[in-house]
């Protein structure tokens, strides 16, 4: 974990292999109040008091295992 008086970045790794990053800052202008949780089948975003859920049609891991193109992503 790194920190100074204005921001902190925390990297976490769980026993099951999941990872996470938490970034917070008090010195950013204009500031952003956004919270995201991304998973293998989608992502939740909370911003401006609104929750948005993005659901993937297949798991990201499965898509990446079969996809042969350059850059791609599963449909959502």
Share of residues in strands: 35-45%
Tell me the overall shape.
Answer: extended
Low-confidence stretches: none
For the biggest sheet, the summary is:
3 strands, antiparallel
Mean pLDDT score:
88
- Strand tally: 6
Number of helices: 1
Structural class: mainly beta
Please state how the strands of the largest beta sheet are arranged side by side.
1-2-3
* Element pattern in H and E: EEEEEEH
The overall number of domains is: 2
- The radius of gyration over CA amounts to 16 Å
Distance between the termini: 33 Å
Explain what this protein looks like in three dimensions.
By secondary structure, the protein is mainly β. It has two domains: 1-32, no CATH class; 34-76, no CATH class. Helices cover 9% and strands 45% of the residues. The chain is built from one helix and six strands. A three-stranded antiparallel sheet has the order 1-2-3, with no helix packed on it. Strand 4 (34-39) and strand 5 form a beta hairpin. The longest helix has 7 residues, at 60-66. It is extended, with a radius of gyration of 16 Å. The model has no long low-confidence stretch (mean pLDDT 88).
Keywords:
76 residues, 6 strands, 3-stranded antiparallel sheet, mainly beta, 2 domains
């Amino acid at each position: 974990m790194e920190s100074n008086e204005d921001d902190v970045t925390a990297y976490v790794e769980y026993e099951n292999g999941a990872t996470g990053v938490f970034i917070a800052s008090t010195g950013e202008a204009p500031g952003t109040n956004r919270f995201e949780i991304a998973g293998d089948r989608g992502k939740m975003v909370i911003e401006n008091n609104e929750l948005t859920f993005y659901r993937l049609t297949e798991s990201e891991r499965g898509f990446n295992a079969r996809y042969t193109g350059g850059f791609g992503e599963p449909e959502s």
